[in-house]
Amino acid sequence: MHSALVRVQNVFGFFTTVAFCTAIAVALSVTVIPQAPSAEIELRNVQVVKGRPHYHSAKKEEYAHIKFDLDADLTSLFNWNTKQLFVWIMATYPSKFPSEPPSQAVIWDTIINSESQKHPSTPFTLYSSLTTPSKPPPKVRRASKAKQEVELAPGLIRLKNSKPKYQITDFSGQLAATSNVTLEVGWNVQPWVGALTWTMGEGSSWGRWKGLKGGRSKTFDMPPLKVKGVDQEAVKGSGKPEKAAEASPIVK
């Protein structure tokens, strides 16, 4: 007869083998679920000013402040193995040196949790729900307009004239009059088990997974900085702030 220690080792080895095989099956099962994400992004306004973009900046430099509209449907990226989705908007523009790759900077990002991540179900929460006595319903109060709005499903993003989270700066300190700038939507799926998956470009596919449809804005140019003249110096001396240069998107 085997000793108790040997029996425990056998049981634990069998358990880890079953858990490992189950994890592999779950990770591979999502490949048969179709994915067809889509997004539309549009530039609303861009400003280029010269100053200190951050409180810790040692010197003044040019930085861009971009507002945008985003309408994205990434619901197909959520399945039983999705923990959360990381979405970002990246501005891409040509480098100062032709031999270098294009420069890229993230101006906005967000993390979208799945329903299982928002409301995790564990044996402890199940036991608490069964043992805790139910409380009487609270008094109904008039909800605000923001609360009355229907909560969007995970993966749906509706942003209008949204401000960026981050401002664009360049290592050269110059951004004014930069041409051929585009905004692109990217995402990263973080599963419960398995490998991370990243953005698939439009037109690409892998099995039943389709690439992101759209997700790129029209090409636009950064506006130039206004040249200070005699009149502008007089206005500045009067205490009125100088208005930053603005530009609207142009079709290339």
In short:
The chain is an alpha+beta fold and 252 residues long. It has helices spanning 4-29, 115-118, 123-131, 145-148, 230-237, and strands spanning 38-51, 61-73, 82-93, 103-113, 156-162, 168-169, 182-191, 197-198, 205-206, 209-210, 213-214, 245-247. The strands form 3 sheets. Strands 1, 2, 5, 6, 11 and 12 form a 6-stranded mixed sheet that branches.
Written account of the structure:
It is a single chain. The chain has 252 residues and is an alpha+beta fold. 20% of the residues lie in helices and 32% in strands. It has helices at residues 4-29, 115-118, 123-131, 145-148, 230-237; strands at 38-51, 61-73, 82-93, 103-113, 156-162, 168-169, 182-191, 197-198, 205-206, 209-210, 213-214, 245-247. The strands form 3 sheets. Strands 1, 2, 5, 6, 11 and 12 form a 6-stranded mixed β-sheet that branches. The chain has a 4-stranded antiparallel β-sheet with strand order 4-3-7-8.
